[in-house]
Structures are given as C-alpha cells and as structure tokens.
Specification:
Endonuclease Iii, domain 2, Endonuclease III, domain 1, 2 domains, 12 helices, globular
C-alpha cells in the first residue's frame, strides 16, 4: 500500500473540484479526436508545449499527411520540415516513422489500435522513442481503452496536497497510486473507466498549467487550497 493514499471520498472530491474549476476549458484530445492525430500529437508533445505541437499539426493537415499511409511514404526530410515547429524535429521524425513501422508489422494502424490495451502498450514501449506516458496516452486517447497517463503535473498536484508516494517516485508507482484510487469509484464499465481516466488526467494537466503552476501558483484562485498544505497565502 502506498503511503498517504487518499480515501475514495477524497479522491472523488478532488476530481469534482477540478471539474468545477476547469470544465469550461477546451482539451485537445476530448472527446472525439482523430486517433492517428492523437498518436502524432502524443509523440510531438514530448519536451515541448502543446502550442508548438498544434503548429506542427496544422502543417501536417495542410500537407494531408495526418494519415498513416501518407506519412509513412513521406521522405524523412519532408516530414522533418512539417514537424519542425514541435522542436527536436529530426528525432521526432524518427519516432513517428518507428511507430508507423510498428503499426505496419501488426497489420496497420487500425489493427494495432484494436488490440487489447496491454498489448498496445507493450508494442508501443518496444518502439524506439516511446516511453510510458506516451504509450498510455496512445492507449487511452487513440485506442479508447482504459489507461491513466501519469505525468509531472500529477506528481506536483498530489504531492502538494500531501498525497501519494512522493514527487520523486517512479512513473509506475504514481500510476498505481491513481489507478488504485480511481478503481474505488466502483466503475465496472470499460468505456466509462477509460473516460474517467482521461478526464481526470485532462483536469490535472489543465489545473497545473493554469492554477497549480510550478512557479507562482495561483493558490488564491484554487478551490483545493483549503485542503492543500502547500497553499500560499
């Protein structure tokens, strides 16, 4: 058991407060984003902001390259130029091509996305340039199957709330902390669980980008401040 684990009611209360604060904000992968565009975005967003990714996606759309077959046929130099706004464009081109090769080995993109979640995750992790967070985003947002994508925002928020295994804990440890807690909501339907994982992850990201910022957090605007030991002012 992870120390400082929240009760079911506490985890649900945090979710509801986040929803009240950020329900009006848009989220780029919710609820009906194109699955292949999600994969491309999940790879391009590594080590950059979503604003830069959106610029790259716009260029890919204009080139009609947000299609696995079209992108796979592009020369590396051409794809590099299209994704240049996302930064590290040579490395990211290699990662995109590596993912496309993985999909091709398994009968194509749609066939890969139709596999069980554990298999998709394993195949993604075996692909050069794809780590756990990217793999879980692909499973949840592209394949539409239950997976909680952990990130530094999640560790920041729950560590400030005095919950969880500690900000320096591993990805897998943090993910298990959230998954164990969310399972207490007694949601048994796979689609509903996937939606809850995705929504909770999205709310955490939006909260940490706009309110619980790394520097100069806006504690005065945060509904979670009364329960937060790290709240300022």
């Amino acid at each position: 058991m992870i120390a400082n684990a929240p009760s079911t009611d506490e985890l649900l209360a945090i979710y509801e407060e986040l929803e009240r604060m950020h329900a009006w904000r848009g989220w780029h992968w919710w609820p009906d984003a194109d699955p292949f565009e999600v994969v491309v975005g999940a790879i391009l967003v590594q080590n950059t902001s979503w604003t830069n990714v959106e610029r790259a996606l716009e260029r890919l759309r204009a080139a009609h390259a947000l299609d696995p077959l079209v992108m796979g046929a592009l020369p590396d130099e051409e794809l590099e130029e299209l994704v240049r706004p996302s930064g590290q464009y040579r490395q990211k081109t290699k990662k995109l091509k590596a993912f496309l090769e993985t999909a091709e080995r398994h009968g194509g993109f749609e066939a890969l996305m139709a596999m069980p979640a554990e298999r998709i995750r394993a195949e993604c992790l075996a692909t050069w340039g794809i780590g756990p967070e990217t793999a879980d985003c692909i499973v949840a947002y592209a394949a539409g199957q239950p997976a909680f994508a952990m990130d530094a925002y999640t560790a920041r928020l729950f560590s400030r709330l005095g919950l969880g295994p500690g900000e320096a804990a591993s990805y897998d440890t943090w993910q298990q902390f959230l998954v164990d807690g969310i399972h207490k909501f007694t949601i048994h339907d796979s689609a509903a669980l996937r939606d809850l994982y995705c929504r909770y992850h999205a709310l955490i990201v939006m909260h940490c980008k706009h309110t619980c910022r790394k520097r100069a957090p806006k504690c005065g605007e945060c509904a979670l401040a009364p329960r937060c030991p790290a709240a300022i002012g």
